[in-house]
Fold this protein.
Amino acid sequence: MIKVCKFGGTSMADGINMRRIADILADDPARRYVVVSAPGKRYGGDFKVTDLLYDVWREVEEYGFVGEAYAKVGARFSGIVRELGMEFPIDEVLEETARAIEREKSADFTASRGEYLAARVMAAFLDVPFIDARDVMKFSADGRLDSERTYALVREALKGKPRAVVSGFYGETADGKIKTFSRGGSDISGAIVARAAGASVYENWTDVSGFLACDPHIVASPVGIRSLSYKELRELSYMGANVLHSEAIFPVREADIPIRIKNTFRPQDEGTEILPTSKYRYGDRVVTGIAGKKNFTVIFIEKSLMNAEIGFTYRVLSVLLKHSVSFEHIPSGIDTMSLVIDSDLLSHGVLEELCEDIRRTVRPDSMRVFNNIALIAVVGHGMSKNVGTSARLFDAIARAGVNIRMIDQGSSEINIIVGVENENYERTVRAVYEEFFGAHS
Ligand code: ASP
């Protein structure tokens, strides 16, 4: 049996925590392959090494060489090596890395060095081989991961190695440059290694004991989610439940490998298990979890006989394509349609240009823009089986005195998304939580 374990930034934050990792690995011999993040924050107000490295990149861009920010990165790694009491040539490695950063002149290369250094130190500490993600994680010319090649290379690299440490977060492009995944992307690296290694489980070790039914900053001590399907995970993590990167699921899903979220600081806690939808039993649970995000813009388009105008939606979407703007949802009625878009994508005049172009292209009767919309996703396989779930949901929101600006039920029937004003976001999440998980639910 093989378990692949990914350890996040807090688990890697200092030498003391890295010792905890060694203990966790020693506890179970099946935990053979390890993927690590760069050291994260040690305490509130501290810096993540990856953020410091983006500062390093700004220094290199401006002055051509590394400066103060790199000294901070160096201090973090020297501290770790000291705390671990290791014989490791950290000064030399830091010096080499500084020169490489100045030579490569790339933001991604610079940012990736946190994982590179962390994995080298961890491998030396555990006395197991280090596998550089650059040699095994490959992107194709279109910038997407070349999965087949990557799986084959990872498999090849692991062959004959009973244990190994792989650096997370980055890989190499077709023209030999380092490219990182998006932030938090070591979760994806871990999933890739789990898939390539044919792991029986992908353990993702973090600083919380799994998923909670909603954001603990909004509801005090929400209930934990013991198990979750891949589909539910995708919905919840896409909508802001940020325990796991929302794309980490794809490599393991192809091979039906379950994911287990575990807490490095409370390894005895069960955590959350994420299972293939076919193997997942939700029992009589109606809602599995609630997640949400603020700051969306809704462009509302109205035109009489829209339903009969062939190609109307096509033409609206072609305007989005032209402006390279992606949308989240398009709830529509007979003569109306709304485009729900992340407001960040519409800054710097993009919204105005987009609206003008839509007006010109489809000549609507009217068009209105609503800013500051928050979306709340209520997710659960149980919803489709339980009559009256949406009535309970809307009733709870109405009782909280919140006006719903938009409703969208995903075609998979495992989620209902409601749009409310940003200022009503927290109140709505609380009301929904109380309805489905509260004492009287
Ligand atoms: N270190 C990277 C970040 O901070 C990647 C990761 O931790 O997964 O985003």
